[in-house]
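It is worth pausing here to work through a concrete case rather than discussing structure prediction in the abstract. The textbook approach is simple: state the sequence, then state the predicted structure, then interpret. We follow exactly that order.
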Amino acid sequence: MTEKIKYNLFSIFSSTLIAFAIWIYILYNFDPFSNDILAILSFFATLFFWLSGIITMIMIFIRINIFSKFSINSNISASIRQATIISILIVGLLALNTLNSLNTLQASILVFIAILLELFIKGIITNEP
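Step two, the predicted structure:
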């Protein structure tokens, strides 16, 4: 692996660890029922960042070991993109559940939008000259 790939993987790993530590701190030190909107937003933001990092690392590991070890750069960028979309979906579903406004129709619409977004971005990337 080149130095750039090692640097990218290390920064993904370290930022995930930092986001997880901040999320644990928020989880244990703030009461979500008596705090303001800033504490709840910081909870969901750090949840998004560490979920995105964990899913990215899992997807990179799976892509490199199962599919191909030669195109690591394209595997990293696709993994980051898909992990971000999955994390947005999970955090969005949890935020709607926190607001007590989540039902099956809304959840299925959000999943459908996430799938369409991934297909749209993949189509744009493959049609580049």
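Step three, interpretation. The mean pLDDT is 88. The chain has four helices and no strands.
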